[in-house]
Design goal:
The structure holds 2 protein chains of 2 kinds. By secondary structure, chain A is α+β, with helices and mostly antiparallel strands. Chain A folds into 2 domains: 57 residues, Arc Repressor Mutant, subunit A (Orthogonal Bundle); 80 residues, Glutaredoxin, CATH 3.40.30. Helices cover 43% and strands 13% of the residues of chain A. Chain A contains 7 helices and 5 strands, in the order ααααβααββββα. In chain A, strand 4 and strand 5 form a beta hairpin. In chain A, helix 3 crosses helix 4. Chain A is elongated. Chain A starts with 6 loop residues before the first helix and ends with a helix. In chain B, a hairpin with a 6-residue loop joins strand 3 and strand 4. The chains are: A alpha+beta, B alpha/beta.
């Protein structure tokens, strides 16, 4: 994980974006893509670049669930909350993972190796119930196989 | 036709013919989000390796989805002579060696075959069109899927691509609008509003610049038709937007794709870049003097941005909160300029209408809703996949024929036609047709195409808790009726599920139903639909939960399990609905 970026570095990163051109989300995406999250100081830098207020940028960051205001864990586990997953036992998968990791949704383990958050259905419902580990689908889970995935990641595969 | 376009098309056709006549075996792997979830990237890599190491002269490439999502990865193999081609399913990485061995020996692999896609059926493998999953399907939007490379504009051009745009270039805006109006194309996002009329609003706008927006924020969980189309044939959407731009004198377009679809985003970006390279987008398009800029825009995780004014605010750079209408987008949309918003599938139909004519396009359906519609289906079904059919068949056909029936041994309990706002219907409504009106009459809607079936192991209170929980999470927070109302509904449902149901709860639901309809946008107005519709047909089950403290499906852990429960009484921790 990168250290917190400096102001100059951030200014250069978002220099291509312009006011009044719908560049708020693209600028935030670029920052998150670069650092894995949106550091607090990036909000002010983007606001200045786009000639708007930090409040507006902060408002956008907190409105959309996919912007992170803290660094990601090594393994970001997204638990799919969609209807097919729920019908096929998704709640038990969530409970098993939460118990295995000792954390709830939108939390990280103290060592920052695992983060757990809600994933929105991406239409791979044929693999329900499923989780995504760093974006990769792990499907057709049982509570036991979900625990196994977490354990093998924790023990370094 | 425009001479430059004609040249692009004839060059692409020549290249396609040369590819066909190359005398090489052609192997095509479906590479989309569904197949990637089942290891298609590894299948592709292993096929390339194995073909190379066995010295098989094969051209290994990628294609879009056939709709057999539950059978991914799908791989088609076409003989060197080009006279025989077979589609295979479930070609997981570990099965690649077996397939390569068969190819090397010059034979088919019947145990993985789904059907013959070119040439005659064999004694062991029937034609794909005779597969039960393919029967009754009319693949127009999906015509190229499985056959062309979505990352190659020439493949699209060689299959009638941009011909509709070529025709539109020779028509005036009014004539294009008339053609689309005559076709009867209705908005595919769920509303069904005539697309041609929307374009006409923008055409008649008095200020400029004018914007087109493609709503690819397919947020309804259980729906992935737009993803299949964007990942499988992205140029169809670009061409549709180009035609709409000619019809409405639009200057700039945005394709707003949800964050959960990274591959669709990459494919659309690549396709747009290719269209720019060929002079199909940008300034002075194909030397005609017309301009149209197209930007692919990535959302960031907000269901309510699927509401057109929420989406507009999101592009503008604000929180994606729906605006108060009027003014409507056609008057004041993006940057308060005239804007038209259509669904992916609505735009994608325009090239077909222009290329083949309104009459051809609408002739496929014998109900009021014209044209074809893509559906996905999931839940307690054997086969979760994607199809394209004319409007009109029964929901039963979707379940029994295309989804292969229920996955378990329990009877059907009900289904949700399209998204968390669309409501739930009981098994007795399984013979409703897939048209718009029957759902409207029930105070709900058909939705954008993602049908979810559930059997008796599902609990109606638990399902509504999911739908309402989703609506609560995704409420933008503007209207108290919506953000407060969904919170109250979730609290009551949680209490009922935990065994604390009260006699007044059903009445409270009715009050909430009457309250949320005063919300500004459809999200709030329809948030209570699942409770409203289920109170009508599953009322007994609510009463059981509240009065008898029994959950017949055994899902609600605070209650005694009832007749459909698979777990024994008393309540044990860790039980599941499955």
């Amino acid at each position: 994980m990168a250290a917190e970026p400096g102001l100059q570095e951030l200014r250069e990163l978002v220099a291509e974006f312009q006011p009044g051109r719908g560049h708020v989300l693209p600028a935030l995406h670029k920052v998150q893509h670069t650092y894995g999250w949106v550091p607090r100081q990036a909000i002010e830098v983007i606001a200045r670049q786009l000639n708007t207020t930090p409040a507006l940028i902060y408002g956008a960051v907190t409105f959309y669930s996919d912007f992170r205001t803290h660094p990601p864990a090594t393994y970001e586990v997204a638990w799919c909350c969609g209807p097919a997953c729920r019908l096929r036992g998704g709640e038990a998968i969530r409970e098993a993972i939460q118990e295995e990791l000792g954390i709830g949704l939108n939390e990280q383990t103290p060592d920052h190796r695992f983060g757990l958050h809600v994933g929105q259905c991406n239409g791979t419902c044929h693999e329900a119930p499923q989780i995504w580990v760093n974006g990769r689908v792990r499907g057709n889970l049982t509570p036991e196989s979900a625990r196994d995935i977490i354990r093998s990641l924790r023990d370094g595969e | 036709m425009n001479a430059r376009l004609e040249k692009l098309i004839s060059d692409a056709r020549a290249a396609w013919r040369a590819e066909q006549a190359s005398g090489r075996i052609r192997i095509r792997v479906t590479l989309d989000t569904s197949s990637l979830a089942r290891g298609a990237d590894e299948t592709l890599a292993r096929l390339r390796e194995a073909a190379a190491s066995r010295r098989i002269d094969a051209d290994v490439g990628i294609t879009g989805s056939w709709g057999f999502c539950w059978m991914e990865p799908c791989v088609s193999v076409r003989s060197a002579a080009g006279t025989h081609a077979v589609l295979y399913g479930n070609v997981t990485p570990d099965r690649v060696d077996g397939l390569i061995e068969a190819i090397a020996a010059g034979r088919d692999l019947p145990e993985l075959a789904l059907g013959v896609i070119e040439g005659n059926a064999t004694p062991e493998i029937p034609l794909l069109e005779d597969h039960p999953f393919m029967k009754g399907q009319v693949r127009r939007l999906m015509a190229n899927l499985g056959r062309t490379d979505p990352e190659n504009i020439d493949h699209y051009l060689a299959h009638g691509g941009y011909e509709g745009f070529g025709k539109a270039l020779e028509m005036d805006a009014e004539a294009i609008v008339k053609e689309v109006l005559d076709s009867g194309l209705g908005g595919r996002g769920g509303g069904g509003f005539p697309t041609g009329r929307k374009w006409d609003f923008l055409r008649n706008a008095t200020t400029s610049p004018r914007y087109l927006v493609c709503n690819a924020d397919e947020g309804d969980p259980g729906a992935w038709v737009n993803r299949i189309l964007m990942e499988g044939d992205p140029h169809l959407i670009i061409e549709g937007m180009l035609i709409a731009a000619l019809a409405s004198h639009a200057d700039e377009g945005y394709i707003y794709i949800r964050y959960e679809y990274p591959l669709a985003f990459e494919r659309m970006k690549k396709a747009v870049a290719q269209a720019y390279e060929r002079g199909l987008l940008g300034r002075d398009i194909l030397g005609t003097g017309k301009n149209f800029e197209l930007i692919v825009f990535l959302g960031a995780g907000a269901y309510v941005c699927g509401e057109e004014t929420g989406l507009i605010n999101s592009i503008d750079g604000y929180r994606g909160m729906p605006r108060i209408k009027p003014p409507f987008p056609a008057q004041a949309g993006l940057w308060n300029k005239p804007t038209n918003v259509n669904n992916v599938e609505s735009y994608a139909n325009a090239p077909l209408i222009l290329r083949h004519g309104a009459q051809w396009w609408s002739s496929v359906s014998d109900v009021k809703e014209k044209g074809t519609k893509m559906f996905t289906f999931s839940g307690h079904v054997k086969q979760a996949g994607c199809i394209e059919i004319p409007f009109g068949p029964k929901v039963r056909t979707l379940l029994e024929q295309y989804a292969g029936g229920l996955s378990g041994d329990l009877p059907l309990k009900g289904f949700q036609p399209g998204g968390p706002l669309s409501g739930v219907l009981p098994a007795s409504d399984i013979d409703l047709p897939l048209t718009l009106d029957p759902y409207r009459e029930r105070g709900m809607f058909l939705g954008s195409g993602g049908v979810v079936f559930f059997d008796q192991s599902a609990c109606i209170v638990d399902l509504c808790l999911f739908f309402l929980g989703f609506c609560e999470d995704e409420s933008c927070g503007r209207c108290t009726t919506c953000h407060g109302g969904t919170q109250r509904a979730v609290e009551i449902l949680r209490r009922i599920a935990a065994g604390g149901g009260r006699d007044a709860d059903l009445e409270n639901f009715e009050k909430l139903i009457g309250t949320l309809v005063w919300s500004n946008c459809l999200h709030g107005q329809f948030a209570m639909t699942s409770i409203k519709t289920s109170l009508r047909t599953f009322r007994d089950e609510y009463v059981e939960h509240i009065v008898d403290k029994v959950c017949r499906a055994g899902v609600c852990k605070g209650l005694m399990p009832g007749r459909w429960a698979r777990r024994p009484a008393p309540v044990s921790a860790g039980a599941t609905a499955d």
